[in-house]
Amino acid sequence: MAKHETPLLDQLESGPWPSFVTDLKRQAEKKPECWDILGQVELSYKDRITHWKHGGIVGVFGYGGGIVGRYSDVPKQFPGVEHFHTVRVAQPASKYYSTKHLRHLMEIWEKHGSGMTNFHGSTGDIILLGTRTEHLEPLFWDLTHDLNQDLGGSGSNLRTPANCLGQSRCEWSCYDTEECCHQLTIKYQDEIHRPAFPYKFKFKFSGCPNDCVAAIARSDVAVIGTWKDNIRIDQAAVKEYIAGNYPSNGGAHSGRDWGKFDIQKEVVDLCPTKCMWMEGGELKIDDKECTRCMHCINVMPRALRPGVDTGATVCVGAKAPILDGAQFATLIVPFMKISADNEFEELIEFIEKIWDWWMEVGKNRERVGETMQRVGLPTFLSIMGVDPIPQHVKEPRSNPYVFWKDEEVPGGFERDVEEFRRRHAA
Fold it and tell me: Does this model's pTM top 0.85?
């Protein structure tokens, strides 16, 4: 395949940062179709429209997800990318790999595709960019039989679950994100690979409120570690921070000397609920006012730790700005025990109750958060069997009318009937 003139793309190599253009040119020495990738992207920059046709019914036998069909709309001009399907490969929990495994994966991809990858896509999956339809089945065979690795999710199904490093490396993790993500991934293979939902559905697992996988912004069910009791305080370590003997922020500085540590300025005054103060040389915390923002723990990790009664907060309904704009997930369950001891039974029951409702009332291409918006949070809480709490209130009620269900008012319907009869008898 011939090289193409790419003056617009070439500009992307002129900056100080690594460029995908340089990588593609290098890959094209082994995979000539990459010259056509560069040519078509150059044409897209020139015409200011994409020349990829997204979609198409293409996949592997028995699976409805995992392959994103993509074809060129100028195949005669760029025959090397006539077919250019994306393959989503389910990532291991927390994206832990051995170098041997990665090399084997790349050997398979060089054999069946363009060799281009995206580690990792915003879905969390390993993204293998560009293969032909006739290579999909052989690629799938090699992935599953040689690597024991499966395809990820795509389409209106459960997307590949994702989690943070959890207790494998992080001292703040309040539950075992690795085990939770693994067990639910195994349990819901059918939901991942055979689309049957109104639209995509994601759950992500963060071990603490730092939320390192951004679950609250990106997932339909965000399971974010938290604690129910008080923050643990080492007052001796607090004094060491104040004395300047311990570096704040775990010693993570950006090459700038911030001067002497000031606990009042850098911790107490930055508490969003003002629930901290110094008294008699000791740090005090009114834990019932704490919102678990993690700031104080992040700044003084040797002095402060999460409590010991740990679990997770479960939020529902985040999404990207496809229809009504981006939205964060809404807190639904403030605290839930997340434990492998009961096989995550409570969380599984919660998720499946959402699915049962959403699959019945959700519109086509409507995320759970949009369905919640449409029916209203009170209705959703009632369906989920969750009692309303102050944390569910986004803003004060502006509607002056209050409507009650008959069952919420003792003897309501019967009382109204009696009143009606009494007035008409009079």
Answer: yes
